[in-house]
Amino acid sequence: MQAIVLHGKQDIRYTTDYPKPEPKAGEVLLRMTYSSICQTDIEMWQHGMFNWGGKPHIQGHEAAGVVVEIGPALDEGPSNERRGSKLAKAELKVGDRVAVENVRTCGTCFFCRKGTSQLCENGRNFGFSDDGGLAEFGVWPASLCIPLPDNMTNEEAPLAEPTSVAVHAVENANVVVGETAAVIGCGVVGLCTLQVLKAAGLKVIAIDPREQSLKIARELGADEVLNPNEVDAGELLPGLTNGYGPDVIIETAGAPGTGMDAANWVRRGGRVVIVGFSHTSQDDINFGRSHMGEKTIMGSSATSHDGYRKAVALIASGAVNVKPLISALVPLDKGIEDGFERMLKPEKDVYRILVGNG
Ligand SMILES: [Zn+2]
Ligand SMILES: [Zn+2]
């Protein structure tokens, strides 16, 4: 079958003869529709980040597909897969369109049993350690497939992944209706985060140096936008909030200094959630400031249990609009040229490129 396979650092290849996978008990075979390429894919390809195991694997962790086959019946599989198999029977049928979660957690470690499966010690990731969605077919545990409502398109479905990251970040921020939040970085995750914050009843200030991103942020509901190349955001924020600064700042840029900006700009007693990641960011935290201001600074990684379902529901309801974030649709055989390589250009004018045969 066709697939886009990462062989190692700066070595990604399109092939037509990757073996077609077969579903085991508790799993389903999907005909993949679209996967979106994000900066993490580029970091893996260009800098060798996250390539756990080091063996060639299919890229694509923001993926969606259509169920074409359900794995063997539950009495044929090992006992620990029976739950997934039951779910496959109960919820999924051939022809269902689904968004797929990209983390396979163990369910038995300390963190999974505490309900914090995003911290699983034994987690495996589709598109990172295991084969992802940039192929004609993929095999996924039925329990990680979320059926799409009729009004949600195959193009919108992969964007459930960044939306689920936004849902988790907003939940980690413990937001309260009526508070004010700032979002630093208006890439795809930032633009999803701003919409989830609006859906949760907050006033939102979007901060980004790219005018195009601020324009989209405004269209997607930002109450205020600030360009740090033109204004001193730290100076203006108190006046746009309660006089002291945002109650919550969610940092999604992962650029040098932006985590520190968030810590400095949030009001005393406020909460900062760090979502952004980059191989270049090297901030020194001044713990004294955090101590004096009783500021909470926490990380937020991937999404929590149910984050994906909430993301699908938010997109289907229209509370999160991902359509302006889809920059191009590219078939699998052009995915490297028109997808991965286009993302490398310094004047990159894209949010998400969807790759797949639809
Ligand atoms: Zn991603
Ligand atoms: Zn676990």
Main sheet properties? 7 strands, mixed
| CATH fold field value of the largest domain | Quinone Oxidoreductase, Chain A, domain 1
Strand content: 15-25%
The count of helical stretches stands at 11
The run of helices and strands is EEEHEEHEEHEEEHEHEHEHEHEHEHEHE
CATH level-four homologous superfamily name of the largest domain? Medium-chain alcohol dehydrogenases, catalytic domain
Mass-distribution shape = globular
Unreliable stretches: none
- Structure class: alpha/beta
In the CATH hierarchy, the architecture of the largest domain is: Alpha-Beta Complex
Chain-averaged pLDDT: 91
Query: Assembly state here?
Result: single chain
Briefly, what is this?
Helix content is 28%, strand content 23%. It has 358 residues and is α/β, with parallel strands linked by helices. β15 (271-274), α9 and β16 (296-299) form a beta-alpha-beta unit.
